[in-house]
């Protein structure tokens, strides 16, 4: 009779899983609280303390740390190992169901003391996971309730479970790595960072065909960006970068908005009363660059928007949902990728970039921490309509590669310039893209103007109001240029470089 050991903190789905095992003839062995739950649900179970002959001690700190348990887990399927077990009256354990004390959830609560945190450091559970994972050639480890169905189904169908056991063992080792990392960071006083990543898919190649690449995720089994791919070809390395850039930008807007990205640079951003109007305005910003781009929406994609998008070749659409009719319309484009996101959150709140022999970590730029520092520094005040447009443009420029310049009319971009080593060239690029639409538009700059030349180029194009962080030793030159040319200027006090 196969033997299963159950010792869990999170008891979600446990009774049904244990009943399924019992129906298949498994013997159930469980620690204190888990055993009581199974017994209360009319399942025959042997308590670990009765099996080992050693009661729980130290207030439950020691339950499963016993050679009868770990010998049963670590014994190989050899005559010699089995004989050593049976001589001591023990038996092999074939399945371990275990999950850990919620250390991270505990330390995330306000006012938690060091003593309370330490009590949530799991010892026995981690030891069980590592023992079962090490001996996965014979033992099945289940450390996530989401795997109950797959494991039980495999047993019911009498499948060869070696591949499944290996995957579950890998999952266990990754879990304990993450768990120990969280504890170490907490005790060190560092931010609890999520550095444990799980393979999502192997990509065909990286930025270029000669580069190998893979996609990693924060949680096992999740899709790209934590979303779900509904249709289309596999997302490429470059697709994923563009999808990420588009999504980060669109979720910063509260109104119905559309962002179009090409080669990591937004080429059109717009907010409007209706989604299709937002799409049309974003497309009009730079229809040439939009061809083959990525489209992000911060609302469920509607059928009217899908119809409009279907007239353009795009690589991917990402949104928090898709109307059924929109899916029907877009299904005709079989290679078009559709990514459905679970919510509008950007996670994690830190980002990493690799450098030679190291990593850089920073908190995610989610915009100005406050707008209390905003002030008009020119003689001319922006009108209400200009101020709304400046706010829109200010958010937009935070997602353009530095040196970032955005021209906007109302709540849509009409010209974007970025990624150049000097700011005045970016103003000229934005002006060229905007053409006549620059007349009466506003301009946002992600960083200060080192000279007045950018202001002068903006005025030449027809810009009427400017928003920028300020902070240059030559700020007054730019302010004087605005006063001379009849422009208003708002200074925010916050820079938004994006390299």
What features would you highlight for this structure?
499 residues; alpha/beta; Rossmann fold; Cytidine Deaminase, domain 2; six-stranded mixed beta sheet; 19 helices; 21 strands; 38% helix; elongated
End-to-end C-alpha gap = 61 Å
Helical residue percent? 25-40%
Summed over residues and divided by their number, the pLDDT gives a mean of: 91
Total discrete domains: 3
Measured on Cα atoms, how large is the radius of gyration?
A: 29 Å
Which word captures the global form?
elongated
How much of the sequence lies in strands comes to 15-25%
CATH superfamily of the largest domain: Methylglyoxal synthase-like domain
Give a summary of the structure in a few sentences.
The chain has 499 residues and is an alpha/beta fold. The chain is 38% helix and 20% strand.
């Amino acid at each position: 009779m196969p033997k299963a050991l159950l010792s869990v903190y999170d008891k979600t789905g446990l009774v049904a899983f244990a009943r399924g095992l019992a129906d298949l003839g498994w013997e159930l062995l469980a620690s204190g609280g888990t055993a009581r739950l199974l017994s209360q649900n009319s399942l025959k179970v042997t308590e670990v303390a009765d099996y080992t002959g050693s009661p729980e001690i130290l207030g439950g700190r020691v339950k499963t740390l016993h050679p009868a348990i770990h010998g049963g887990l670590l014994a190989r399927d050899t005559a010699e190992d089995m004989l050593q077990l049976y001589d001591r009256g023990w038996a092999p354990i074939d399945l371990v169901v275990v999950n850990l004390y919620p250390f991270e959830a505990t330390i995330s609560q306000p006012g938690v003391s060091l003593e309370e945190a330490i009590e949530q450091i799991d010892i026995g559970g981690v030891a069980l996971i590592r023992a079962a994972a090490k001996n996965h050639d014979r033992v099945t480890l289940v450390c996530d309730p989401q795997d109950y169905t797959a494991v039980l189904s495999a047993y019911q169908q009498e499948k060869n479970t070696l591949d499944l056991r290996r995957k579950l063992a890998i999952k266990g080792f990754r879990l304990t790595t993450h768990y120990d990392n969280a504890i170490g960071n907490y005790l060190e006083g560092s931010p609890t960072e999520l550095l444990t990543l799980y393979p999502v898919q192997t990509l065909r190649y990286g930025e270029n065909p000669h580069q190998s690449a893979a996609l990693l995720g924060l949680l096992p089994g999740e899709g790209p960006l934590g979303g779900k791919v509904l249709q289309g070809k596999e997302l490429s390395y470059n697709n994923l970068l563009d999808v990420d850039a588009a999504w980060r930008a669109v979720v910063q807007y509260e109104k119905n908005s559309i962002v179009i990205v090409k080669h990591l640079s937004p080429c059109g951003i717009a907010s409007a009363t209706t989604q299709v109007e937002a799409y049309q305005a974003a497309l009009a910003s730079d229809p040439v660059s939009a061809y083959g781009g990525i489209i992000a929406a911060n609302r469920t994609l509607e059928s009217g928007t899908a119809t409009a998008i279907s007239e353009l070749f795009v690589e991917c659409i990402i949104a928090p949902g898709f109307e059924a009719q929109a899916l029907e319309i877009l299904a005709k484009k079989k290679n078009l990728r559709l990514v459905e996101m679970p919510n509008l959150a950007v996670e994690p709140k830190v980002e990493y970039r690799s450098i030679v022999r190291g990593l850089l970590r920073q908190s995610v730029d989610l915009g100005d921490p406050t707008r209390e520092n905003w002030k008009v520094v020119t003689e001319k005040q922006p009108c209400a309509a200009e101020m709304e447009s400046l706010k829109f443009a200010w958010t937009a420029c935070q997602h353009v590669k530095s040196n970032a310049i955005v021209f906007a009319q109302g709540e849509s971009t009409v010209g974007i310039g970025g990624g150049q080593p000097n700011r005045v060239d970016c103003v000229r690029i934005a002006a060229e893209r905007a053409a006549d639409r620059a007349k009466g538009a506003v301009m946002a700059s992600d960083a200060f103007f080192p000279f007045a030349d950018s202001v002068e180029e903006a005025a030449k194009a027809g810009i009427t109001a400017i928003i920028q962080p300020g902070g240059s030793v030559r700020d007054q030159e730019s302010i004087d240029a605005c006063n001379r040319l009849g422009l208003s200027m708002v200074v925010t006090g916050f820079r938004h470089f994006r390299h």
